């Protein structure tokens, strides 16, 4: 039996991102007045070792085993999320939320990161078993439920950022399974309705547009009506939902829409981050030298806003290098997904790509006020064991799928 | 066709890659916008974020005397400031600070008020800290994370009391001052001149404050005091050289009898003020570093009002020295010459209407010509000369000679001298029948509706001493450069000067006669309804070709002859320098020259004169 070939390029991309990340984390700890971030780079190095072991484990496990284990893993993930809601604690900038599980006062992890992986496996298993992409909205319901349950549980923590990640995973995998894009669009329409409902005018225009699309694409009648009804309901419940949001979430959304709203309050993070990034210019202030970082103007500079340090100290070129590395990694993932030996493996890899893309886009976008501020980490950069572990487990699976694909798998087109 | 067929996957892989490219393009675009297109804006924001500008006090320009000696200079001082993120932590830091150095509750309240006005600047706590206080604070620096100790130039007046009314004083600009045109360009916290030359030439002396930058962190805590950004050094104010002779100024201060209120000005015939002194005086150094409320109250509530500059603000009846003006008016109009006599010789009193006006010499001077009348200061002669001149002409000429003006000296706060502008003034003031032409008699001897500052009267004597006319007195430079002329021929001026020399030689000021230096001058005794009369003396020397003119008044001195020796000593000190022989006693031959108040004829006390 031939031995598979390791996808070295993907591994190199991951390695470079990890090195880059540790270097930036080290810098993030170098402040004029010591912060809790000062030693995290060392802990991160320990976590990278742990993560390497974890990745090796998933690398050595056959995707078949994963497919078999998907339902119990998924249920375990849900159990952890429920447990988090009951006994969870907050931490750091998200001190008011329940996203951590702690034993004896020691925080041991954020279950949501593992739940994301379990959800990817579960959706992949379900989609792969169908062999055929969902053709109607109704056929997507099970997939939506698989992603929706953890989505709601996470939203309850509340952790909007991670909740969005579940949506990102779901859409990415439905797309990869072959679902028609317009169907995905209809699926997403109630969310758009929700967002646009803050003004009668935008919602009205959106609704007219939607009716036109339904007429154009002609789904099943009852499905079309359901989509319309969902949109109407969303339009009506937008305000109650808004009211149900925690004030900090409301503020984040409001200041995202209008960054000058309250510079010292809710929007402080967004503005400080953008000031740090903008002051970086082409080449940045130099590694370790960023004054905004040094003087702790940057919020959560070692976790959620670690990319602001890249922007300030390494400038646009540093940002470009990081983003190109991410783009390269994601392209490699698409390639691996394309070449995977079976639909399950392919879907899992693409789901991982969806996970990474959502994280990168949301996290990096929020540092430049492109996206609202939600506390979600940047893969390979942000300090945090759970997420690094989740990433390495995912990369392990990807490497395994890539290796298997080099043995057999679909030939190149 | 399976959804996982290679071709279907290829198609979706292409789509997925496009989605990726678009997503990353958007991200890169956003960073390009923030980091490249808006870089400058955010760079400035970043500086604003971390840098706090601390104004650097510019050294105030020194004030020098005519020989370059220092009247006002700067010495090193220290200010203590506190940088705080909010009022609560400032209050707390002030509390701890007052345990180390004395900071009373008023200072603490003031520091908090400053902080509230400019929360991003370190709040000034002590403007003028002693070296010992600075050392104590430096030792405990760890206790005060926001402590900023800054070396600041501090004003100093080495001559202190002697120069107070020349230089004035400086104090921190108030918010109200900032609106005033005078303090244009001054910034909050700046020291500005509040009086005297410091005020008059503030814009020249003040200089341009510099900036240095201290670095703070996100909590507003001081991180780095130096090297955060290159400082902009302050621009020192320009020096001004005055016309003052500091040695003479000090001499006058030492000469002046303690406890006597009054003023003395000395100047050259072209208007350069050599000395300007007002008594009582104060120490302008008291204002350095912020005057304490207690000291301020003491100065302000002192009944002798030391802050009042009697040389330019005090108004006194000009008395006998004004007779020279009457003589000049009559000479100019050709009404008299130096040999003219008046219809009535002096018998000690003069009846006008139903009132009797007396001469200061109850026995009378007999028949005098103009020179004799000036020499003897005969009131009867000048009553008649005034009548001859007429009220209209007296007022008109008086206006032309500047008796209703300021002297124009380049010092802030000079008051206007008083003379009625025209006859209609009396109608307005007293009603058409409420006054008689007798007022002209009073005015003729410098009493009544006339009040002059020492400075303005001395300017008139400049005109007597300087044929070209009387320029504005000035300390640094003349304000407008106009001349006051009395339009007399050289012969007439010479005649008046001779008469004044005669005053000193034979007349009322004979005690001031000095063989080696001929001093011309005129005594005066200004009637004072509030107490003892004020004494005047205005003189110049050498009489033939004057080089210095000195005018002085002493309140409640009773007689002008009391003042004369001080003036003469001042003149001699200037003329002969520090080696001048001042020891010889000035003897007063005729101690009285004040005309008693006129009496109504119906009054039974009419014949009684006030005996000398």
What does this structure look like?
The complex is a heterodimer of chains A (413) and B (612). Chain A is mostly helical. Chain A is 70% helix and 2% strand. Chain A is built from 15 helices and two strands. Chain A has a two-stranded antiparallel ribbon. In chain A, helix 1 packs antiparallel against helix 13, helix 4 packs parallel to helix 6 (160-176) and helix 5 (137-155) runs antiparallel to helix 6 (160-176). The two termini of chain A are 25 Å apart. Chain B has 612 residues and is an alpha+beta fold. Chain B is 34% helix and 18% strand. In chain B, the strands form seven sheets. In chain B, strands 2, 3, 4, 5 and 10 form a five-stranded mixed β-sheet that branches. The longest helix of chain B has 32 residues, at 6-37. Mean pLDDT of chain B is 84; it is low at 585-591 and 602-612. At the A-B interface, helix 11, helix 13 and helix 14 of A face helix 1 and helix 2 of B.
Largest sheet report of chain B = 5 strands, mixed
Strand order of the largest sheet of chain A: 1-2
Radius of gyration of chain A: 22 Å
Order of helices and strands of chain A: HHHEEHHHHHHHHHHHH
Number of strands of chain B: 22
| Tertiary shape of chain B | elongated
Sheet-strand content of chain A, in percent, reads under 5%
DSSP, total strands of chain A: 2
Assembly status: heterodimer
Task: State the end-to-end distance of chain B.
Answer: 140 Å
Mean pLDDT of chain B: 84
The structure class of chain A reads mainly alpha
Helix content of chain A: 55-70%
Shape of chain A: globular
| Number of helices, where a helix is a run of at least 4 consecutive DSSP H or I residues of chain B | 20
Biggest protein-protein contact in the assembly: A-B, 54 and 44 residues
Quickly give the structural class of chain B: alpha+beta
Q: How large, in whole angstroms, is the Cα Rg of chain B?
A: 35 Å
Q: In terms of per-residue confidence, which ranges of chain B show pLDDT below 50 for 5 or more consecutive residues? A: 585-591, 602-612
Q: Average pLDDT of chain A, to the nearest integer?
A: 84
